Structures are given as C-alpha cells and as structure tokens.
Amino acid sequence: MALSREQVAMRVAQELQDGYYVNLGIGIPTLVANFVPEGIEVMLQSENGLLGMGPYPTDDQVDADMINAGKETVTAATGAAIFNSADSFAMIRGGHVDLTVLGAFEVDQQGNIASWMIPKKLIKGMGGAMDLVAGAQNIIVTMTHASKHGDSKLLEACTLPLTGVNCVKKIVTDLAVLEVKDGAFHLLERAPGVSVDEIISKTAGKLIVNGDTPQMQFA
Amino acid sequence: MALSREQVAMRVAQELQDGYYVNLGIGIPTLVANFVPEGIEVMLQSENGLLGMGPYPTDDQVDADMINAGKETVTAATGAAIFNSADSFAMIRGGHVDLTVLGAFEVDQQGNIASWMIPKKLIKGMGGAMDLVAGAQNIIVTMTHASKHGDSKLLEACTLPLTGVNCVKKIVTDLAVLEVKDGAFHLLERAPGVSVDEIISKTAGKLIVNGDTPQMQFA
Amino acid sequence: MAGFDKVVTSYAEAMDGIKDGDTIIAGGFGLCGIPEGLINEIKRKKTKELTVVSNNCGVDDFGLGVLLHDRQIKKIIASYVGENALFEQQLLDGIIDVELTPQGTLAEKMRAGGAGIPGFYTATGYGTPVAEGKEVKEFDGRPYILEESITGEFAIIKAWKADRYGNLVFRHTAMNFNPMAATAGKITVAEVEEIVEPGELEPSQIHTPGIYVNRVIKGDFEKRIERVTTRK
Amino acid sequence: MAGFDKVVTSYAEAMDGIKDGDTIIAGGFGLCGIPEGLINEIKRKKTKELTVVSNNCGVDDFGLGVLLHDRQIKKIIASYVGENALFEQQLLDGIIDVELTPQGTLAEKMRAGGAGIPGFYTATGYGTPVAEGKEVKEFDGRPYILEESITGEFAIIKAWKADRYGNLVFRHTAMNFNPMAATAGKITVAEVEEIVEPGELEPSQIHTPGIYVNRVIKGDFEKRIERVTTRK
C-alpha cells in the first residue's frame, strides 16, 4: 500500500546521520524533523538565516522576528546561529549543508528536477529552491510517485521548467526508494505491500530493477 | 620653501569635509588625522576591519587584538564598528569611503599611480593599496614632488609597476597642490615661497598653469 | 559629530528625494523585518514607475503589497511572489513586470552591488529558465552562469537598534536581506525600533556599520505575522 | 549532541590528516588573530610542500614565519610579506614561490571559495601586474578582471570564544581574515581562547556558525604585538 506522508517522512529520516546539517523544504520534508532516529542529532538550516531551527513556539513564545523559510513562527534551538540571507546562501551554495530534502513536480533519469513553476498557472517564484539544488552535497526528493491522474512523475525528461540539472541523487516516493545514477532510476526499496510491477508501471523514465527489491523497514 | 611632512598633512586636511569617512595610508597620510579642521568630524577607516579608529592607546590600554592596518596598536573611537576583512574591502571596493589619502613613488598625467613595488628591490606586496585606489571615490596622493636626486615623481607615464589606473584626482606635494584631469597635471596652489618656475622644472609630465597660482593658505 | 548624526524625525525627511522611476532595494523576508513606515510613506507620496528589488512583495494590504493599489510598481525583482492575489492580477494584466531571481542569487546580487563586484558566477539556475541569455563559464568542469550586481537609488531597511551614526543591529531572523540591501542603496534609510547613543553598541557586534546608512528614523511597527504556527 | 561536539583536546588531533602538498588557508592579519598553536603543530609535524594562503607570513620567529626554517612552505598567496627577512631570502633563492594578491581580493577569494562562487569581477588590479593573464570584462563601461576563488584542504583560524558546536565569536580586530578562512577549508580548525557551552553565545551575534568548523581546540596565546604604539 502507498505510504502516507508521515511514512514517507519516516523513511527519509532513516537517511539522516549524526551531526548532519539538513535543510528541509516545505511540505513532507518538514515532517522529517519529527522522525529523527534515536541516538542521532541533526541541525536544521532554514534558508532565511537560521542554523539550528527549534520546534514551533508555544503561544507565549511567538515572536514576529523569529520565523523559518516557510514564514512560520519557530524557535531557535540551543546553540543556534542567525545570519543574513547572503551568508545563509553562501552556506548553501558552498556545499556546507549535508542534506537537502525537498518536494518536486517531476524528476527525470538525469537527476534533473522541476519543482517551481507550472506554465499558465500562477508563477509564484523559485524562492531558495534553485540555490538549494545547486549547492547541496546530497539531495533527496520526496513526492508521490504518480499524479492523482496516475501520470508518472519519474520521467525520461522533465516537461516542466527546471529547478536544477543533474542534482537529484535519491527519491523517496509513496511507493519506492530510488537512486538516480548513470541516466536511470535504480529501484532500491519498495513500500510494504507494493509490487515491483506497480512501480514499473508508474515509472515513465528508465528504471533498473536488480533482482529482489526489499521492502522498506520501519522500526 | 618646500613644505614639511606636517605641512603637507595640514594642507591635505583642508580637503576634509564634515561627515567624511576617510582611509589614511601609512606615512604622511597618517599625520592628516592630527590636523582635522575645527568644527569638522571625520571617521577613519582602517582596512583590517575598523571604522572609527581612535587615538593610539595609553600604555594600559594596549591590546594585541586592537590594531590598525599599519599593525600599530590603536583604540576604537566612540561609535566605531569592527568587521571582517571581506566586509572591510566590500566597503572600500564598493565606493563607500569618501576619501583615500595615500603615498606614492610616482603619479602620471593619466592619474595612474605606482606605489607598491620597485623591481629588483624587495617586493613587499601591495597590501590593500590596489583595492583602495580602485574603490575610492576620491583619492589624494601625498609625496615629495621630486626624489632626493631631483627626479620628478609627476610623470608623463609611470615607470614602475602600477597600483591603479586613471584614479588619482588630486596630488599634494611639498611644493604644490595639483589636480589631475584630461591627461595633464593642473597646478592649483604652490607652497609659500615656492615659485611656479620651480614647480615647472620639477614636473616631468604635462603641467597646465592657469594665470596666477595662489599660495597655499595655512590658518 | 554633526556630520555623522543620521537621525531624522519625519517620514517625509526619511524618504526625501525619491522620484518616479527610481529603483528601491527593500530588506525583509515575507513580512518579517520590513520597513513598514517607509513603505507607507512611499505609498503616501504616490511615487510611480518604481522598480522594487525585494525577496517578496508583501501581501495585499501589508508591506510592499500596499504599493500595488495605486500601481506604483512597474517592475519587481524577487524570488517569491506567491502570497499576493493583487500582484498576480497585475502580472496577468501586464501592469507589472517581474524578474524572478533565485533567493541566494538575489541576496548575493545585492551584496555584490554594495561591494563593488559587478558580476559573479554561480551554479544556481544553470540549465533553467533563469540562465536564459546569461553567459556560461566552466570552472573545474562545472558550468556556472554570470549574474550581475544590483544597486538602487534608495535602499529601505528595517533594523532593531541604531545609534545616531547609523550603526545597526538586527533582531533574530528579522535580519534576513536587510544588511545586503543596506549596502546597495545610493541613499539608505533605516527604520528602527530603538535609537541609542554612539558607544552603546559593541563595535564587533554591529551588523551594519554606519557608513552604509544615510538616514535613521524611529518607527512604530505592527509586525504582522504571516503564519502563526505553535505547539502545545 | 555527540555529532556536533567539535572540541578536541590535543594539537595532534586538531591537525590530524594534514599532509605534504596541502593548501592551508590561515586567518590573521600580521600577528593579530593568528592560530599560534596550530601553526606550531604544523612545524612539529614537519609537513612539507605546503601552499599557504594568508594575508601575511608572520615574522622570522613567530606566526607562519616559523614554517620557513624547515622550508615547509612551497608557495604563499599573500598581500604583504614585507615583515620577514627569511622569507625574502627564500624568495631570492627560489625556494619559495609567492603569489601577491591585493588584500581585498584575497579576502573575497576566500569568501567566494566558501560560498560556492568560483569567480567574481573586480576593478582592483586592473591595468597592473596583478591583471596579467586574467580575463577582462567591461560592466557599465569600466573594465574589471576575473578573480577565482580559493579553497584549501585545511583552514586554521583563531577565535575568541567557541561553543562545543563550533560557533565562533572573534574579539576586536583579531577578527580580520578569520571568518572567511573558516569557510574555505575542507577541514576547518579553530584555536580559541575560551570554550563555552552551546546557548551561551547569542545566536545573532555569532560571527562564524558552527557548520563551517570541524574542530575546536582551546589554545594558550602569546599574542605578540608587531608595533606597540602608544600616546601619553
């Protein structure tokens, strides 16, 4: 069965390592923070200028001057640092963030990602997404494997305007975990109860399946 | 009679305006700070990262962590700001310093300056001089008009490796005040008791003398 | 130090000299750390044909969004404009032009403008619509695009504390784009919560040295929050 | 947070992994704000063929100058090397190579290295020997030269206070090149005067966020002064 949003976040959280500096995008990526494995500590970077993002504030902690990149009120964790936007993106562009998790409309087998614009619909802007995908050492994309209409989001070539090229290394969808390399998607894991055939049928790009595909493990 | 070092500094100080941010080089330029005219306040920028340089410390104020660009111990004036070297040169390169005063080996009629290197003698390095001459809105060069051997330092074209091109606007020597524009030195003032003929004889580059040349005035 | 006293007492003085067609660099991220009173003064003056450089364009009735009602903005250079329905309408109607710029590139373009760096190379946006028409150069085998700096006739920013010399300190994440914007204006105006005497701010803890700031005004801030998000 | 505790207790650990031929980015201006103990550890380890990137090269018997005695430095990228007679001799003898770089360009090259900006344009040095072999480009009618970023295997810096996560605060003008150097090392080691617990440093007053710092060691500094200059 397809994973819930929370389960996708739980699976992504398994990729975290102790001491990682991580940038989590809006949506499912934000949920990853709730599932950091036992014994592991990560520091969250928010691109508006905060390293060491803490939990949401309690009602009496709310401060208009303390927000995250999603414009939500947040707190600073113990040992946090706050800096300006140029310094924040120097950190991102310079490859100092260990892992970036973000959503996407489409990913293709070259590791290209489209996540910011659907022509003829409203153009909201790319925010920090282009900087993040260009700068991160390691990018995990989370999204549903296919659209509501059943159209695959894992393509031979993205059809929407790109956010970045040759940058996505790993994808966690509601159906599978895949690696992107050598111009193909490589199936690593499948969601519990989801068949390899279903994944094949919902992957439009080149998909490499190597022998048995283990199911994702959730502790 | 040729001006003393102090008199050159006094004459340069007449160029200061209230509210100026000023960078003073090593040597005579440093002395300018001693002759800031009554009723005028300037703030001194030291390119190692200090805006608002104060006087030298008293013996008990000496602090190894508080130095100027000449590596001398200094103090911070009230209202000073301290920042890193990249930010300091952003300030300089971005043209935010109102006036830079520095010494030179040679200046030519195109406003080129040579101040950092004498081939076959020791190469010490340019330090911040190239950044200063490229970034300042207004540059005054102070130097003796001619070398000890009588060789003019105001040339048709500099003979030494350049520090910057087309940047010097004004020169205050021990003999004269000159403006550099349209490919020539324009004589503005002469030192008290110094004849125009002496200045002409000691200026190798193209010199424009327009009518009577007033003597410098010292209050 | 009369020459260094940057404090003005009216918004009219604060924005004196702004004219139709000017480029305004504005600090702020969303509605956080924005110069509320300076924006309202521009609205009051009805200055037109403005090019606004800011990460966002406020919301319909707050922040830079208030300049849309009288069509004061001709063009905006921003990274994200998705919070504003009126903006969307003016974009569709061709009243306003938008140059979408990646957030980090935008911050760096402002910094570069203030720092005398006319252009820099970044991998951000390579291979995307952002790269169209821009020079591409390889360094160590990776392609980068050339981005040019931004400066403006005015920069309007919001700080927490200022001293009379214009030295500024920002509070928490209300810092955001304000320090870079401060460097990129020919005239930089800072609206602040508190004005202190020179010497009260620790020199090495000043975020923006006074050399960048031409005018300081004490503001009175609503500080609207876009998304109040709390836990139990 | 075990994963974020950057504190090491020996200089051997602090400089573990340095090897012959490495590029070392060093903070400091003259003898002010230099990582004295880390430099001495490199001397002790006798690492050779180093490329050192630093504004200066110390004096004969202090700072980076101590690495000259055993000819550990192959090349130095600096803006001013005039305080060091041994350096001069090795330069004349062809033992050491020097790449003189304007001070502001050097600071910006380090910052760019840390910020993922492979190159930037500056007017500094145009028309001088510094521009030789460099690409020239005009912006708004003025010529600028292309300067490339610098990174190194190690950055060695000196700070005042650090917390265990590697967040750093610098003291007075001992800040200088240290913050930029911190961003430009694959491994960045900070030698500091005092180690405090996370939370003791005010977040918005941290000069160098811990993300740039891999190791922190408490040092014991002589803090030699080059030119003690006093008034009555």
UniProtKB/TrEMBL annotation, chains A, B:
Pfam families: CoA_trans. GO terms for molecular function: succinyl-CoA:3-oxo-acid CoA-transferase activity. Its EC number is 2.8.3.5. It is an enzyme of class 2 (transferase). Signal peptide: none annotated. Keywords: Transferase. PANTHER family: KETOACID-COENZYME A TRANSFERASE, SUCCINYL-COA:3-KETOACID COENZYME A TRANSFERASE SUBUNIT B-RELATED. Belongs to the 3-oxoacid CoA-transferase subunit B family. This is Succinyl-CoA:3-ketoacid coenzyme A transferase subunit B. It comes from Pseudoalteromonas holothuriae. The lineage of its organism: Bacteria, Pseudomonadati, Pseudomonadota, Gammaproteobacteria, Alteromonadales.
Automatic annotation (TrEMBL), chains C, D:
InterPro entries: 3-oxoacid_CoA-transf_A, CoA_trans_fam_I, CoA_transf_BS, NagB/RpiA_transferase-like. GO terms for molecular function: succinyl-CoA:3-oxo-acid CoA-transferase activity. Keywords: Transferase. Its EC number is 2.8.3.5. It comes from the Bacteria. PANTHER family: ACETATE COA-TRANSFERASE SUBUNIT ALPHA, KETOACID-COENZYME A TRANSFERASE. This is Succinyl-CoA:3-ketoacid coenzyme A transferase subunit A. Belongs to the 3-oxoacid CoA-transferase subunit A family. It is an enzyme of class 2 (transferase). PROSITE patterns: COA_TRANSF_1 (PS01273). Pfam families: CoA_trans.
